[in-house]
Amino acid sequence: MAATVVLSAMVSGCVALAAGTGHGERMSVREDDANAGQETRTREPSASATTSPPVTPAPKKLPGMGPGTLAHIPRRTRQVLLVTGEGRNSSRSSAVLYRRTDAGWDPGPVWQAHNAFKGWTHDHHAGDLRSPVGVFTLTDAGGRLADPGSALPYDRSGGFTVHGTGFEGEPLAGSFDYVIAINYNHRPGTSPLDWTRPMGAGKGGGIWLHVDHGGPTHGCVSLGEGHMKELLRNLDPAQHPVIVMGDAASLTA
Question: Which strand (E) or helix (H) includes residue 19?
Fold first, then answer.
């Protein structure tokens, strides 16, 4: 076997397969306006001194989502991590954390992300190498490293240790330093390491947000380490956060 992935707990669906092995992973601002200077005689003030940049209003609806997708977002939700894939069969995507305010949905910065090696699916099964499309709650976190300040329950455990290489030969070490369980076939209120599969083992599981290792995943969504820490510090259980994830075409349905 060219490469192996060794984890201390059994969780399927979360890490990229080792390239060419055929084996799944095993788990163990707003800028202040400048004061315009006084002008002398008949000279007119310059435009740059008298105008401020236009303020883009927060969208009333989450962009890029069709009525079918929007219908699955709970009314009480006020935080949405929107992960939009570049294509149905692409492993690249982008993520934006939106916060609902009285003015609309306020977007955060755009973060680059990876998803599963073969892209996306509406009918995820264990080992299909696709990330599930849908709207899923975010309730539980954990990782190999100490809690960086998460408001979500955080399980620090050696069970989040991973070794080996991914699809593109990149090292997987550190990928599970910070993890948020995506509640696809996961029992809310338990550690991301919980093996319970409410829809059955055949529907896969262990779908997480985790630290990006520079290549496609087995089924998860991965973000840069700094972005994962920022996300952990900002997700608030009182705001009932969810992740909306899928390729752009699927999310417009």
Answer: none
